[in-house]
Predict the 3D structure of the following.
Amino acid sequence: MYLMDMRFPAPDRSPAPPAGSVDPDWAAVNVPATVLWSGPGQLREYDTLILKKMNDPAAWAGGMDNAMRLWLVGKAETMALYGEPVVVLERRGEWLKVAAAAQKTTLSEYGYPGWVPAAHITKNDVYLNELNGLPHVVVAKKQTILHTGAELSGVAGELSYQTRLPLLEEKEQFVAVRLPDGGTGYLSRQDIKKTGDLYFSQGSIVEEAGQFLGLRYIWAGTTAYGFDCSGFTMRLYQSQGISIPRDADEQAKEGQDVARQDLRPGDLVFFAAKGGTGQVHHVGMYTGNGLMVHSPGSSSSIRIDAIDSGTYGLEYWGARRYAN
C-alpha cells in the first residue's frame, strides 16, 4: 500500500476538521524542536534547555547520560519540528496541549497529543494559509542552517532533518521559505528537497537511514538530535513522501504483510513480547542480507543488527511494506 503524506495540509486545500467536530484551532511550532510532554509543568531543572523560549535541542540531547534518557520514559510523548502544524486542544497557564498533525495516531483525531510551553507555539495566518496554498520544501540533511538573508547571509538558527516549510522562491543556490511567525528565511538549495519530488525507493530510504548511524536514542525522539525506534521509521518514510503512524504498534497495523523470506530493503520489521506473539514494542527497517537498521534503546545508538540476533530472533513478530 502506497500512503501519500496527507498529514501535512495539502497545497490545494485547507485542512478539514474530522466529521462532527468543531473547527480545529491551527497553529505551528516556532522553535527548532519541541518535546510534547505527558502533562504540563517542568519536572526537572535540566529540561530548561528544551523548555525555554529560545531553546537548544542539540545541547539538551547531547548533555544527557543514560539515566537522564531513561527518565524520559512515560514523561515525554513525542517531538515536533519547527513549522509543524499543530491543533491547540487546551491551555493551562503557560502550557498548551496540542496535537502534532503530521504524526498519525489513534490517540487523537487531530494528531499526536502532548503538552508544550505556549511560547513554543505561534499562530500566524500568513504562515498557515501558505502552508495550505504553497508547495513545501523539506530538510534532507541531518541539520541545515536557517539564514536571515538572501544569498545565505546571516544565521537565524539550525533546523533538523524533515523540517518542512512553505516555498516562496527558488534560486540556484538557495530557496526562500515562509517561517511560522510570518517572516521569510533562506535555506541552502543543496540541503533541501521539494516535497513534490519525494518518492519511495529502496536505495534512497536505506541511504537516508545510514546518515544517522551512531546517533543516540532518545525516548519520544523524532529529530536529528535523537530518535526512538518508531520516530526514526516515521521520519524515514516521511523522507519518501509517505505517512505512516507515529508508534510501532500502529505502524504494524498498516501496509502489506510481508513473509520473512520475502523481505526487501525498506520493509519494517517488528518485535513483540511473549516470544513474538504479544504486544509489539520495537521496530527496525530491513536493509537486506538479514540485517536491519534501528534505534534500540536509551543506552544505545542507531546501529545495524541481524534480525535474528539475540532477543530479536526470539521476539520477531512480522514485517510490513508501505510502498512497492
Summary: The two ends are 7 Å apart (CA to CA). The chain has a mean pLDDT of 93.
